[in-house]
Write a structure and sequence with these properties.
alpha+beta; 4-stranded mixed sheet; 4-stranded antiparallel sheet; 10 strands
């Protein structure tokens, strides 16, 4: 089915993204995977190409266009290129909205130009060793000391944790307030007491630096409070739908690309004197995956359109996230199986997609959390 979501402007942007990937990412990606981190030069190149701050107002160096379809194009092309390590989606679609919607004019002038140029790389620190999706379990504290906050605690699994120049930290500012006693504090590179732990060794997305962060009596200036005091819960819930949509878009794009690769492989690979594609079981497998992808794509494109119009709700974003990522996981497993022993070799794209994509059903809210959100909306 021909997609009707994108205009000629979106497709022109797609070509820009593909050119950027071919020139600035693909030639260096294998080395980044070995290094466990991408080059800061790639971030600055993305800024020069206009791929950062798509929705940031032009006065701060951004694209000035809040149309989520451009973010969807970016996610689709990065997924097809197997370039999850350069986390532009995290920067643009997850952290960007906090800065554009919550920052004061002074904060915007201070942070957004670098955000758009690639000079300032961002992260958000929510997850702790003992608290993931349960915000009430957060133990990092920020004590009001008059002219500053005194921040103490630790975070883990923080994407961009090593490279980040600016980290939005979720901390308890009113201990008795539970989830409604949390605030967002911005900690900048070089602040005393702010330390990074090891670059965590993951099974996939090797070039995406993921770190532990430690805050030991960090003096955070009062002017680095982002949004309302004790307002983090509402701020986080407001932005989660977009985060989950970005993950869902990557999920269906990943599944479709794996299907393309595998369809071509079974046409060329022979067994018992004929191509695998001539075997009925193989045809049925391909038919099932193609149908699942087509049905999912239709729903995802509708969700993208609704989100671009500002009408997508949290429940449908959760549906999109859990369904698309679980499909990606299922398709990756089946496609690897159809590649046989070659599918287990790291030089084959399907093997890398299998390990890189496994995190999709976990971060941004696990599949189980997505089902709970949907179930509560239906059953109370």
């Amino acid at each position: 089915m021909k997609r009707q979501l994108f205009t000629a402007e979106h497709e022109a942007f797609r070509e820009t993204v593909r050119t950027f990937l071919a020139k600035e990412v693909t030639p260096y990606y294998e080395q980044w995977e070995k290094d466990g981190i991408v080059s800061r030069d790639a971030w600055r190149a993305a800024g020069r190409q206009g791929l950062l701050g798509l929705a940031v107002p032009e006065e701060y160096g951004g694209g000035g266009n809040a149309d989520f379809r451009y973010s969807a194009v970016l996610a689709e092309e990065f997924t097809r290129a197997g370039a999850a390590g350069l986390a532009l989606g995290l920067h643009n679609d997850i952290i960007g909205p906090y800065l554009t919607s919550l920052a004061t004019d002074e904060q915007k002038r201070r942070w957004l130009p670098g955000f758009c140029s690639g000079e300032i790389i961002t992260a958000i620190a929510m997850t702790e060793p003992g608290a993931g999706s349960d915000l009430q379990g957060i133990r990092t504290t920020a004590e009001d000391r008059g002219d500053h906050w005194l921040l103490n605690g630790s975070k883990t699994f923080i994407s961009n944790g090593i490279l980040a120049d600016l980290v939005i930290v979720v901390a308890k500012t009113t201990p008795e307030g539970g989830a409604h006693g949390l605030s967002l504090l911005v900690v900048e590179r070089g602040t005393g007491g702010f330390e990074r732990g090891r670059n965590l060794d993951k099974i996939g997305q090797k070039s995406q630096d993921t770190a532990e962060l430690f805050f030991n009596d960090v003096r955070v200036p009062k002017e680095n409070l982002l949004g309302e005091l004790n307002g983090a819960f509402v701020h986080l819930m407001t932005n989660l739908a977009q985060e989950r949509m970005g993950i869902a878009v990557a999920g269906i794009a990943g599944a479709e690309h794996l299907l393309e690769i595998t369809t071509q492989y079974v046409k060329e690979r022979e067994a018992f004197g004929r191509p695998l594609a001539k075997l009925q079981h193989i045809r049925f497998e391909i038919a099932e995956m193609a149908t699942e992808c087509a049905v999912t794509r239709t729903f995802l494109d509708r969700c993208i359109a609704d989100h671009s119009d500002g009408t997508l709700d949290a429940v449908h974003a959760s549906m999109a996230k859990w369904w698309a990522t679980e499909l990606q996981k299922r398709v990756a497993d089946r496609c690897l199986q159809l590649h046989g022993g070659y599918g287990y070799m790291t030089e084959y794209r399907v093997a890398k997609a299998f390990t890189d994509g496994r995190i999709q059903t976990i971060y941004g809210g696990t599949t189980e959390i997505m089902k709970e959100i949907i179930g509560r909306s239906l059953l109370g």
